[in-house]
Structure formats: structure tokens, C-alpha cells
Amino acid sequence: MASGQEIDDSSNKNSSPKKVYKDPDDGRQRFLLELEFVQCLANPTYIHYLAQNRYFEDEAFIGYLKYLQYWQRPEYIKYIMYPHCLYFLELLQNASFRNAMAHPANKELTHRQQFYFWKNYRNNRLKHILPRPLPEPTAAPPSNALPPPLPPSATTMAASSAPVSAPPVPSPMQYGVPSGPPLVKNDPRNAIDRRKRKKDG
């Protein structure tokens, strides 16, 4: 009968150290494949395809989507060209969104909402960058119950002699149009014709 120490020694001899896999390109190909897959998630049609082919029912695939959230860190986000993919990656962590994307109507709705975001992004952003001041409260008309106003003194007359006007509200479009005279249209009827004309002969 062998002692416990001999059994432990024999088990160590039989189990050789596991070979650690070393990427020949130091993980560059894996990085590029994961980057490409994450950016494909910016396309609602591709997400619909994944849902239709039941990828979202596989627990390993769900785990892979959770693993891919490292792309939201600053050292990786700089490689992303389509930032909507990160938004969809976050939405895909929710089971109800994954199930909803199996329906074509939801795919179309998501695609439309993405289009409207792209269409109105600049204008919406300018609204937040250039906030408009609150409108001045308008004075209520004087009622008959109020006593007549006192005659103005010399100090109030000097202060009120300068006209009071609200500063102009900056328009978000002022940055796109140069100041000065309006742009002149090119009218082909008034322009000098520089083409060679056929000589009457």
C-alpha cells in the first residue's frame, strides 16, 4: 500500500505542465477580428440577422458580448470608427432587446431612429452648446388700483436716458455664413461667356 506522499509525487510526474499558447502576431489578428465584429454591431440589420439565426440564444455568445464591453474603455475606444456600435453593444446586454431585434418591424424602427439621429445630430448638438438666454419677463399692464408713479428724480433720469435693449440672441447658423454682403448667385445670363463662339462665315 502506497503512502499519501507517494501518490502525490506520482500524480505530479504524470501531469506535465500545460503548454501556454503564444500568438505568432502578439494578438494583432484577434484585435482586428474583435474590432471588426464590434463595429458590425452598429448595423441594425446585422443585429437582426444574429437574432434570426438564434445566436442570442447561445450562452457562450452572450458571454462573448459581455467580454466585448472592454471596447468602451478609453485605450480601445480610439480605434472605433462607428460609435453607434458601442451603444448597440450595451443594448445587447439586455435580453428583451435581443429578443425584440428578431422582429423585422423592430429592426426597421431601430434603423429609422439611427438615421434620424445622424440627420439631426449637428443641430441638436448646437442647441446644447449655444444655450439661448431666457426671455425677459413682460411687464403687466398697470391696473387702476395702483397709485400714479412718482415723478422721476435726477439720478433715475440719468440712468434711464441710455436705451435698454436685450443683447441679440446668437444664432447657430451665424457660424456657417460669412459676415458682410450676402452671397451673390451665379447667374449664367449675366456672366461673361468665356467659351469660343463660332464665327459667322
The topology string of helices and strands comes to: HHHHHHHHH
Radius of gyration (CA) equals 35 Å
* Percentage of β-strand residues: under 5%
How many individual helices?
9
How far apart the termini lie comes to 125 Å
Content-based structural category: mainly alpha
Largest sheet: none
Q: How many DSSP-defined strands? A: 0
**Estimated helix fraction:** 40-55%
Determine the mean pLDDT.
74
Could you list the spans in which at least 5 consecutive residues all have pLDDT below 50? none
Shape: extended
What's the quick description here?
The protein is mostly helical and 201 residues long. The protein has helices at residues 4-14, 28-40, 44-52, 59-67, 74-77, 84-91, 95-100, 104-129, 154-160. The N and C termini lie far apart (125 Å).
